[in-house]
C-alpha cells in the first residue's frame, strides 16, 4: 500500500490545487483570532484588522479576522466529499482591548460559519491544555467579584459535509482493517480528552526550534492521529489547510491515509523534511503501543472475570466485538520525497 503526501506553499483561501470532492477528512488548527501572536498575520491578510486593533475596537477586529477564515471554510465545502468530516481544533481568546477584558468565543463563531455553509455539527470534544503559568486565576486574584476563569481547554469542533453519512462497499477491507479497539472507541469518543499530552510523541526532540514551534502553534501528534483513525478509513485523503510543521501529515502517514497540506511559511517545509525521517519508526511504535495497550486491557478484563467473545484475525489477541476482528495496523517501511511531497510505502504491522 502506498500513500501520497502533498505540500503546497500557498494561501488556504484559494485551494486551487485541490479538486472538488477530493478529500474525505479535514483535520486542522487555524490561527486563533484575537490571540496576539496572530495579529500581524491577520493584518497582512486584511489591514482593517490592524486598524480596528489600533482603534481599540475588539469586536470589529474579531469579525474581520474571522472573515478571512470564512474564505477557507468556503473552500473546504468545495473540496470535501459529501458526508466527509471536518475537524477544527481551536481555542477561545481572552484579551484586554482599550482597557476592557473579555473572552472572544472563536469556537462559537466557527460553529456558526460551518452551519451556515450546510455542514451539520456533530458532538465536539474538549481537550485539556494546561496553561504554562502556575497562577490559576486572572483579574483581581482572590478577591470577588473581578477574578476570571483561566482557559485551559481547546475545542475539536466536528462537522459533516451535508446531512448524509458516507457509504462504503459491503465488507470493505480498508474500512474493517482500520477499525479501532472497543476500549479505544470508549476513550476516543468521549467528549473530554485529558490524556492527549505526550501519549504518542510531542515536538520535543524534533528538528523544531522554539521560534518555529511558537509560530506553528503545533498541537500534539495524538490529536490528528486519533482524528484520522476516528473519521477516515485506510486510503482516504486528509487535508490540513493550516499545515504548520506538518503534524497532520505525520499523523496521516502513520495512519495509512493520504494527505494534502497548505502552508504560507516556506520554512516549515524544511522542518518537515527533518521530521519525516522518523516516520517509519514512529508508525511502528504507534501500532505496537496500541496493540500492547489492548493486550493489557484484555488481561485486566479477564482478571475481572469477564470473557471476550472473538479472536482477532491478524494478531494473537481476543477482542470484544465482531467488528474488531479485522483490525490490521500499517507501518511505514519507506518515505521517498518528490517535488510536491512524499510517497510513503506501507506494510502490515507484524508482531513477533
Automatic annotation (TrEMBL):
Any GO BP annotation: methylation
Keyword Oxidoreductase: no
Coiled coil: none
EC assignment: 2.1.1.113
Gene3D superfamilies registered for this protein in UniProt: Vaccinia Virus protein VP39 (3.40.50.150)
Molecular-function GO terms, alphabetical: DNA binding; site-specific DNA-methyltransferase (cytosine-N4-specific) activity
Family, per entry: Belongs to the N(4)/N(6)-methyltransferase family. N(4) subfamily.
Name of a matching Pfam family: N6_N4_Mtase
Segments forming domain DNA methylase N-4/N-6: 23-270
Top-tier EC class: transferase
Reactions it catalyzes: a 2'-deoxycytidine in DNA + S-adenosyl-L-methionine = an N(4)-methyl-2'-deoxycytidine in DNA + S-adenosyl-L-homocysteine + H(+)
Alphabetical UniProt keywords: DNA-binding, Methyltransferase, Restriction system, S-adenosyl-L-methionine, Transferase
Organism: Halosolutus amylolyticus
Protein name as annotated: Type II methyltransferase
